[in-house]
Design brief:
The protein is α/β, with parallel strands linked by helices and about 300 residues long. The chain contains 13 helices and 11 strands. Helix 6 crosses helix 12.
Length: about 300
């Protein structure tokens, strides 16, 4: 069986997937790892990647590359998203990443990030979506991608400059966030969503990435985190609102110890919850399916098509 590896370097986290494809075409994970390094800390304000963010990310990236090699991956694909797209000094990060890992980091455009995220979602959720199709919402640290499709065909895709880290840095000064700060986040999200085209009322929404999986894990007290218990789960708007209210009422020290919480995500998850809740309200849907298989899965599915 052929093994490939993908590393997704995001604004908030770095994720590794080593997977193999059997003769029947089914892709199965061999190893999955995730670390929060906050590469994009301060990028929205300064326009540059911080030394701390780069150092932490490069250390994890080197470790993940070594693990992929140990697991026998014949190809390692490293992609970077919002923070690297926006930062003026991303070239420095790319050079240092190649020196540490031997891999060339590909900076994805927002449109390409959306396309690849949809590939992963469509594989698991498209078959029973019906004529209204799927809407994948990939809530990241620096950007949020929305892709509407039917089956394997995308009808539109959009990348918005809103994410859990970016909105926290823009709007939150208090611990926990004040009502006014929460309203400011909602306003930013509504403004970003205002230009989206109309969607069928019965579109199947699938939430992707760490914000959404964390909301589900906290709602169901999934401790320790177990992707098998999260992937494919149903997250109704009532659960999103309940978890959001709890997150926004607790200081970060208390949020860190909630069952299902990744401690390093605790400072930005209230903004992520507000973003996702506002998006669901804008769409007028009852909730969303949850996908633990985001961009890194789409990258490998796409690469297998290229490599054969």
């Amino acid at each position: 069986m052929s093994r490939l590896a993908a590393v997704d370097v995001g604004t908030n986290s770095v994720l590794l997937l080593v997977a193999e494809r059997a003769a029947d075409g089914v892709v199965r994970p061999v190893r999955e790892e995730a670390e929060i390094t906050r590469l994009g800390r301060g990028v929205d304000r300064t326009g540059v990647l911080s030394a701390e963010g780069m150092d932490a990310t490069l250390e994890v990236l080197a470790r993940f590359a070594a693990l992929a090699h140990e697991d026998g991956a014949r190809v390692l694909v490293v992609t970077a998203t919002s923070a690297a797209r926006d930062a003026r000094n991303s070239a420095e990060f790319l050079v240092r990443a190649r020196e540490r890992t031997g891999a060339t980091v590909e900076i994805l455009s927002g449109d390409e990030e959306a396309r690849l995220s949809y590939l992963a979602v469509a594989q698991d959720f498209a078959a029973d979506a019906g004529e209204a199709g799927l809407l994948a919402i990939d809530v990241g640290g620096g950007s949020t991608e929305l892709v509407h499709g039917r089956g394997g065909r995308m009808l539109f895709r959009r990348s918005l400059d809103i994410g859990s880290v970016r909105l926290t840095e823009r709007c939150v000064r208090s611990d926990p966030p004040t009502r006014a700060e929460q309203d400011a986040i909602r306003s930013e999200v509504r403004n970003a969503l205002a230009g989206l085209p109309g969607l069928p009322r019965d579109v199947r929404v699938v939430g992707v990435a760490g914000t959404v999986t964390s909301l589900y894990a906290i709602a169901h007290a999934v401790e320790p985190y177990d992707a098998a218990r999260v992937h494919g789960g149903w997250l109704p708007v009532e659960d999103v609102a309940r978890v959001r209210a709890r997150l926004c009422s607790l200081p970060v020290a208390e949020r860190r110890v909630l069952p299902g919480m990744q401690p390093k995500r605790a400072d930005v998850l209230p903004a992520g919850a507000l973003l996702f809740e506002t998006a669901l309200a804008h769409l007028g849907v009852a909730g969303a399916r949850v996908s633990d298989r985001g961009l890194r899965w789409g990258v490998l599915l796409d690469r297998w098509e290229t490599l054969g």
